[in-house]
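for the recovery benchmark. tokens below, seq after
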């Protein structure tokens, strides 16, 4: 059966079917040493590149927009990537460990909460034993980078003390991440915030309902919330709500 599928993945005249068969074969290959749980009908949109074992990938009932790209690259073992139900993806890349031969990352976890949307986002860490947690109903615009590592060490000239440690990165529920935002290591963002276009977020913001913008990012507004529907429709419908759990 596998041989037949391999042949079809090369010889089948329909490009779409060839792509689907190849995706299925890739999943089967990784399933031998990793726990991969991706709904069958979504496998053709999910590109996996895993070098390691005992990794767990669980993708819920997600939907895909125009570009239909979900890349997950893992270089290491015992890592976990979980994407909850209702997430909508145009383009999302998640990388744990450097994509080359080293360094590898182990026991690291990336979790994306339900109903988040991604236009074009890259999430990356090369560290072991760390976590990237994204809450529910967040909206990510294009060219967003979440970089939970500096990749290279910084240390004191005298004393040889290593400075740039990686701990945990957390984005709360219902956070709108504007176009071109860079979120750097260890950042924690409270619920219901807006990160303004091209902000560089290098420190944590613990106050909810704020707009944060600039480089270095600062709070520019307090006591606000937002709605994912288009502004034009929103103005027509006047669907103001102060209950954040009601805001899709
Ligand atoms: C963050 C944002 C939502 C705030 O909008 P707003 O509440 O109407 O804010 P204003 O435009 O009134 O600006 C308030 C202040 O913040 C500053 N500011 C606003 N956005 C900024 C940004 N992205 N970077 C730096 N400063 C910014 C303004 O210059 C202004 O400064 P001032 O008080 O010194 O005059 C908006 O500016 C933004 O960045 N929008 C882009 C959203 C996006 O990326 N959408 C893509 C589709 S998902």
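predicted aa per position
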């Amino acid at each position: 059966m596998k041989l037949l599928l391999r042949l079809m993945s090369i010889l089948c005249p329909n490009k779409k079917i060839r792509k689907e068969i190849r995706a299925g074969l890739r999943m089967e290959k990784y399933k031998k040493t990793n726990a991969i749980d991706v709904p069958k009908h979504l496998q053709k949109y999910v590109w996996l590149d895993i070098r390691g074992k005992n990794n767990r990938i669980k993708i819920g009932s997600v939907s895909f927009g125009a570009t239909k790209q979900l890349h997950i690259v893992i270089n290491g073992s015992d890592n976990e990537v979980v994407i909850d139900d209702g997430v909508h993806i145009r383009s999302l890349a998640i990388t744990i460990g450097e994509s080359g031969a080293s360094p590898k990352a182990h026991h690291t976890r990336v979790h994306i909460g339900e109903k988040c949307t991604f236009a074009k986002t890259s999430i990356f860490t090369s560290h072991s034993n760390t976590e990237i947690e994204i809450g529910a109903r967040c909206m990510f615009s294009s060219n967003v980078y979440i970089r939970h590592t500096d990749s290279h060490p910084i240390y004191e000239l005298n004393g040889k003390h290593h400075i740039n440690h990686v701990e945990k990165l957390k984005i709360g529920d219902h956070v709108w991440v504007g176009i071109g935002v860079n979120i750097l290591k260890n950042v924690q963002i409270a619920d219901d915030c807006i990160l303004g276009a091209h902000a560089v977020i290098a420190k944590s913001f613990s106050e909810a309902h704020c707009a944060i913008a600039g480089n270095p990012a600062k709070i520019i507004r307090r006591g606000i919330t937002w709605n994912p529907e288009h502004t034009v429709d929103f103005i027509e419908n006047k669907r103001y709500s102060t209950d954040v759990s009601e805001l899709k």
